[in-house]
Amino acid sequence: MKKVFLEGAISPEFIADSIAKHQGKHSIGAHNIFLGQVRADEVGDQKVVAIEYTSYEEMANEKLHEIREAAFEKFNLTCLHIYHSLGEVKVGEICIFVFVSSPRRKQVYEATEWLVNQVKEHVPIFGKEILDNADHQWKVNS
């Protein structure tokens, strides 16, 4: 099974390398990416400074594999990649990277939105928000 979890923030270099690998594929007419980053939400009078992501990795990998297979059946995709951070990711850093390619642009837009929603709704990844006073709370998906 393909590796989907990366320790810490997803770097700009990793994203650029992942995209560059697809430039030579001449059957692709469109790419779309979704980059989710940690935002500085306010919790009471505190601000989120980071999120620590954890997961039931085996279960999450199985679910991501199912989502991936369903996406290929549902959309006319050439390729797709889903990567998610584990461990601490600071505000402003990337925690999820979804990359979709297809012969046509309409498919990549629809597939990207569908994939992000599936990951958020069905994959057991949990975030503990770390606040600027060092307190923490479990994140509610939004």
From TrEMBL:
MF GO annotations: molybdopterin synthase activity
Q: Provide the E.C. number(s) assigned to this enzyme.
A: 2.8.1.12
Reactions catalysed, semicolon-separated, are:
2 [molybdopterin-synthase sulfur-carrier protein]-C-terminal-Gly-aminoethanethioate + cyclic pyranopterin phosphate + H2O = molybdopterin + 2 [molybdopterin-synthase sulfur-carrier protein]-C-terminal Gly-Gly + 2 H(+)
Instruction: Name the domain of life this protein comes from.
Output: Bacteria
Tell me the pathway. Answer: Cofactor biosynthesis; molybdopterin biosynthesis
Keyword RNA-binding tagged: no
Q: Does the keyword Hydrolase apply?
A: no
- Which CDD domains does this one have? MoaE (cd00756)
User: Which keywords does this Swiss-Prot/TrEMBL entry list?
Assistant: Molybdenum cofactor biosynthesis
Q: Name one GO biological process term.
A: Mo-molybdopterin cofactor biosynthetic process
Q: Which family does it belong to?
A: Belongs to the MoaE family.
Q: How does it assemble?
A: Heterotetramer of 2 MoaD subunits and 2 MoaE subunits. Also stable as homodimer. The enzyme changes between these two forms during catalysis.
Name of the protein in question: Molybdopterin synthase catalytic subunit
Query: What organism is recorded for this protein?
Result: Algoriphagus yeomjeoni
